[in-house]
Amino acid sequence: MDDGARTAAAHRTLSADVVVVGARVAGAAAATHLARAGHDVLVLDRAEFPSDTISTHVIARSGMVQLARLGVVEALVAGGAPPLRRVELTSHVGTVSKDIRDRLGISFLLAPRRYALDAALQQAALAAGARLRQGCSVEGVIRDSTDRVVGVRAHDGDGPVDVLARHVVGADGLSSRIARSVRAALTIVEPSSGACQYAYVTGSWDAIEYHLVDGVFAGVFPTHDGAACVWAITPEEVARRYRHAGRGADEAFVNLLLDRVPELAARVASGSGTTPVRGMLRMPNHFREACGPGWSLVGDAGYHRDAITGHGISDALWAAELLAEAVDTGLRCPALETVAMAEYAANRDRLAARIFQITVALAAFPDRDTFVGLQRELALEIDVLADELHHRPQPCRREAPALERQPAVSLSLT
Ligand SMILES: Cc1cc2nc3c(=O)[nH]c(=O)nc-3n(C[C@H](O)[C@H](O)[C@H](O)COP(=O)(O)OP(=O)(O)OC[C@H]3O[C@@H](n4cnc5c(N)ncnc54)[C@H](O)[C@@H]3O)c2cc1C
Question: Which CATH architecture has domain 3-81+109-189+284-362+380-413?
Answer without folding.
Answer: 3-Layer(bba) Sandwich (3.50)
